[in-house]
Design goal:
With 201 residues, this protein is α+β, with helices and mostly antiparallel strands. It has one domain (16-200): q2cbj1_9rhob like domain (Jelly Rolls). It is 17% helix and 36% strand. The chain has two helices and nine strands; from the N terminus they run βαβαβββββββ. α1 (21-33) crosses α2 (64-85). The longest helix is centred in the middle third of the chain and has 22 residues, at 64-85. The radius of gyration is 18 Å and the shape is globular. The protein binds fe (ii) ion. Residues 112, 114, 177, 192 line the site of fe (ii) ion.
């Protein structure tokens, strides 16, 4: 007897990965020329350990490298939206908050989600020393109340992203995540941002 079935992917979580190493290298030079001291954003200081953080207005700058970064990331967000909708639309995208971290030895960032935004991103500018932790863990938003062989596939606890220079991760704002303990000596540099999709053309 023929079997026929429809696979339904309801409630899966999209997460997109891009890479732009040349831009990350330019950003590394620019960001290290800026000096930040402590958590200048003053946001959720208690969940950020052994790291410095800029104010949340990084993308407001008129510096050429920042304008280029903003345009590149906006183009990636458009690509992901068109991928999800199977269309070829243009979008007006606003970055409500944008900042960077510099993480030293034994830095970590406890679990959190980004609020008041649509798509969020993490752009690894300098991933630091290899095999010294510091991965980004995305927590599974689906929690089954029963665990057996039938529920294992949708009950995985987390998706782990290993930082690489130039890697850009775009994720929906509801997805909780954290940065595991980084024990390397080289400082890590990571840009993060929150966006809203204002208009479609
Ligand atoms: Fe985050």
């Amino acid at each position: 007897m023929e079997k026929s079935f429809v696979k339904n992917s309801l409630f899966s979580t999209p997460l997109f990965e891009f890479n732009n190493l040349a831009l990350a290298n330019e950003l590394r030079s620019y960001l290290t020329s800026l000096k930040i001291d402590g958590i200048e954003s003053r946001v959720a200081k208690h969940i950020k350990h052994n790291m410095s953080e800029s104010k949340f207005n990084l993308f407001n700058s008129d510096e050429k490298i920042i304008k280029t970064t903003r345009a590149y990331i906006a183009s990636c967000i458009k690509d992901l939206l068109n991928n999800l909708t199977s269309r070829d639309d243009d979008y007006k995208i606003a970055f409500s908050e944008s900042w960077y971290h510099i993480g030293g030895k034994n830095s970590s960032h406890d679990v959190h989600a980004h609020i008041n935004c649509s798509w969020c991103g993490i752009y690894y500018i300098d991933s630091g020393d290899k095999n010294k932790g510091g991965q980004t863990f995305f927590c599974n938003p689906i929690f089954s109340n029963f665990l057996d062989l039938g529920t294992l596939h949708h009950n995985d606890t987390e998706h782990i992203v290993t930082p690489e220079d130039g890697k850009l991760i775009l994720f929906p704002s509801y997805l909780k995540h954290f940065q595991s303990l980084y024990t390397g000596e080289t400082e890590r540099i990571v840009i993060a941002f929150n966006s809203s999709i204002i208009e479609k053309f």
